[in-house]
Amino acid sequence: MPRVSLKIVGASGQGINSIGEILAKGLKRSGYCVFGYREYPSLIKGGHASYQLDISHEEIGSTERSVDILVTLNHHGLQKNLGDLKEGGVIIHAVQGWEFSEEEKKTLRERRVRVIFLPVEAILEKLKAKAILGNVLISAFVWAILGREKDSLKTLVGERFKKKPQLLDLNMRCIEEGFGFLDPAGPASVSLPLPQDRWKECLLITGSQALGLGAFAAGVRFFAGYPMTPSTPLLTFMADMQNKTGIAIKQAEDEITAAQMVSGAMYAGTRAFTTTSGGGFDLMSETVSMNGIIENPVVFVVAQRPGPGTGLPTWTAQADLLMTVYTAHGEFPRAVIGVSGSADAFALFAEAFNLAEEYQIPVIVLTDKQLMEGLYTQEPFDASTVSIRRGALVTDTAALKKLSSTDRYDPSMKDGISPRWLPGSEAQTFCAQADEHAPDGSTCESAEGARLQIAKRLCKGDALKAALPEPELIGSIDPEILLVGWGSAKTAIADVLRDERFRGKDIGYLHYSYLWPLKTDTFAKFAKSAKKVVLIEGNAQGQLGKLLRQESGVEIRDKILKFDGRPFFYDELIDLLSPFVAAS
Amino acid sequence: MSIPLDSSGPLMKDYASTQACTWCDACGDYGIWTAIKRALVELKIHPWQALLCFDVGCHGNMADKIGGYRFHGLHGRVIPFATGAKIANNKLPVIAVGGDGASFSEGVGHLVHAIRSNYPIVFILHNNANYGLTTGQASALTPKGQKMNVSPNGIPERTLPSMDFVFSLEPTFVARGFSGDIPQLTQILKTAIAHRGFAFVDVLQSCPTYNHFATHDFLLERCFDANKEGHDPKDLAKARQLATDTSKRIATGILYQNEDVPNFCEELVPRQGKATQLTEEVRCIDPSIFYEDFI
Prior knowledge:
The complex is a heterodimer.
Chain A: E1 4-12, H1 16-30, E2 33-39, E3 46-56, E4 67-72, H2 75-80, E5 85-93, H3 102-110, E6 114-117, H4 120-127, H5 134-145, H6 150-160, H7 165-180, E7 203-206, H8 207-217, E8 220-225, H9 232-240, H10 242-245, E9 248-251, H11 255-268, E10 271-276, H12 278-294, E11 298-304, H13 321-326, E12 335-338, H14 342-359, E13 362-368, H15 369-373, E14 375-378, H16 397-402, E15 431-433, H17 447-467, E16 472-475, E17 481-486, H18 489-498, E18 507-512, E19 514-516, H19 521-529, E20 532-537, H20 543-552, E21 558-561, H21 570-583
Parallel strand pairs in A: 1-4, 4-5, 5-6, 8-9, 8-10, 10-11, 11-13, 12-13, 17-18, 17-20, 20-21
Antiparallel strand pairs in A: 1-3, 2-3, 7-14, 12-19, 16-18
Chain B: H1 29-42, E1 51-54, E2 69-72, H2 78-88, E3 94-99, H3 100-103, H4 108-117, E4 122-127, E5 130-131, E6 137-138, H5 162-168, E7 173-178, H6 182-194, E8 199-204, H7 216-222, E9 223-225, H8 236-244, E10 250-257, H9 264-267
Helix pairs in contact in B: 1-6
């Protein structure tokens, strides 16, 4: 697949993100599919951070380890990132008087890497512009190298400075300077594939933003949260949207508060959720269990990062699957949903609220740093595909009058799903009771009563499992090589399957969105007919593999497991998968 | 004061439960239980209009001995759950009930932020100065040196000065009742339910089984109605002094009330001027109205 990669590196806070965002938007508008990926250490300023854009005229959802263009805002990039360049790549830097060592020069020569010094400081001084404008200057120079039109960049930058017209002129002059700069060694260029119109009207959106839009489409009206990377961008997005949407936002004093508030709000009858990462979710686990017994719908977003402990706060992982499936005491049903990219961040998140209400259970939506901060080129979401289903919720006045307190936890209801009604409804009342209880929520410690209620609740899990779709098969419909995975690895795997080295091969990827309850019929069928089954997961133990074995008895022996805090990179995954393909 | 006999509002029997009470004889919970029901009846709040949230402990066993929509959750966590429900539906009168064990140890952070945030809910503290349901361990409010279950040598920690602590957080409503004075507690709760923000109601109660130091008789002898003696609840300095100095007599009544501070829900900018509740607004917002930022 023809793809170009562009990496901007510098210190956190130096403006690498704004260069990345300007270029990403410009490229998308020009007709390219763009995937953005950030790496940064856990600190506010300084450190060595990067923003990489991978660009294609075809669909793209992954990052390459080696890049065509490296833009570095400081000398650290010239020291640390030389090895990232592809043969024939271009380095653009702003470090006055930088001298590579003889060895580095030799490597650069051998790899035909072009190094261009852009005198950012001098140009800004000439324009009497502040350092921050260097971002626009650099963007303009890169824009020129990519062979793009000056005017399109001017339009884009004009929009960004709509609210600061006093800065507009200076920005436009920076664009002129960027385009006008001539490297003494002659013009440089990196060619892109031919653009396609289909991307122009797409959204450029992070996974967090897609989740937020999914929440609004699902009718969410309350959000409570406590900051924890990498879930914070969703908290920020919800808060930033409060004035546009009229929702109530609470930055809670801790994760337990956030979880309890959201539970109370859902009990009262609105839609609400909270978001956190693994450590914060540990604190919420007692609340998960509580919602299990009171049969309260509630939705948690868990954005994974590597643990244990504080782990790697700003890096990614798929290592909390077993935690979310097994956390919280007692036996009760729950749903665990893994989202893979912006499309299902929107759609599956909206669906999470339906499952929570229809089955009156906690629903955990698993994402990771890769998705939360990944920038996706996304076709506009179709709101007509979102339905709001509230299950056995009774709101009709006449129906409410007919309810008896003992209907609330009536164990004789089909699938264990009993009517739910809201405080403030003119009806007989009940107790949402976290002690084991009788059908009206009164405490009940009888052996028979306990057995009935526990069975009632678990029955909902069976019904949920029966209703959930089987995993999605991508690629060959009867694959010789079956790949199995979940979460954000999907977009990288899909990119690899589109690669010319894999295209036309008999490979299928079975992607699990619904991770618990786990459906295994399709998996077992294809695992039996395939010659090779390979598990691909971003954790050390092959957690989905363990669940699949537990639920189906089928063990996947070949595993590609990654647990270094990084996502699956495109070229890396090709290397890892190639032996399996070659052997078949 | 009389129990209304007309049919315009609920009756005490509407709040009755068929469940048998399980508290010890002479437990202060009976008095608080009765006062909660009386206050709701006298305010003409029907059971279906009220939300009563219970923490875990002896008081929490009230959850199925009373009418109304109820919630009985986790130890120490009643305040945030009750608050979430209130934010979702401001029309609901929400009463959260907790004990001194949970509220001043495991759940103390919630209490701090509830006072700070001025959530528009009532919080009734069942204060019997011990963990009763787990068989009489010391709470943070048990007097230092007291021998308790798990503290055979007397508790080594100093007692948490609960009222000083509460007043340090700039509360907008502080009252103290006594489980032995149901008429007064009823009046306190009625005022608390009508209060604009977070109403902290400390109820001193007997625990005949485990509290042998502040018994019903001990409290009966010392409690006095400060309002009857002319205390003005607007007088913050006096209120704090009355609340904290319990060396000779124990002041009860509405000690402090400030209605000038907006509550949390009133402070939410996006909710200004909204005629509907969050519970009435669950519908799809088409994402396309936000696309401008993403194109």
